[in-house]
């Protein structure tokens, strides 16, 4: 039987959760202004194209 220090286990679990959260934040907020503008322009262009192809009854 192995003795486990619960304090160390809790801290390790919290560190792992923080790493996961940080990775998500890097994806969400780690883009440059130019990258955000490019993504916004692409979204706008796609929406405009879809609206242009819509058939009106």
Task: Write structural notes for this entry.
By secondary structure, this protein is an all-alpha fold. Helices cover 77% and strands 0% of the residues. The N and C termini lie far apart (74 Å).
A few lines on this structure:
By secondary structure, the protein is mainly alpha-helical. It is built from 2 helices and no strands.
* Largest sheet: number of strands, sense, barrel closure: none
Distance between the amino and carboxyl termini: 74 Å
Q: How many alpha or pi helices? A: 2
Q: What is the beta-strand fraction?
A: under 5%
- What is the N-to-C succession of helices and strands? HH
Q: Using DSSP, what is the number of strands? A: 0
Oligomer: single chain
Shape: elongated
Mean of residue pLDDT values: 92
Low-confidence region ranges = none
Determine the fraction of residues in helical runs and give it as a percent range.
over 70%
Rg of Cα set: 23 Å
- Structural class, from helix and strand content? mainly alpha
SSE blueprint and pairings:
Elements: H1 6-29, H2 33-52
Index terms:
57 residues; mainly alpha
């Amino acid at each position: 039987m192995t003795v486990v220090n619960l304090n160390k286990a809790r801290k390790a679990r919290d560190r792992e959760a923080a790493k996961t959260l940080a990775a998500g934040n890097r994806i969400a907020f780690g883009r440059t202004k130019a990258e955000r503008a490019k993504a916004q322009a692409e979204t706008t262009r796609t929406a405009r194209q879809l609206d242009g192809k819509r058939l009106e009854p």
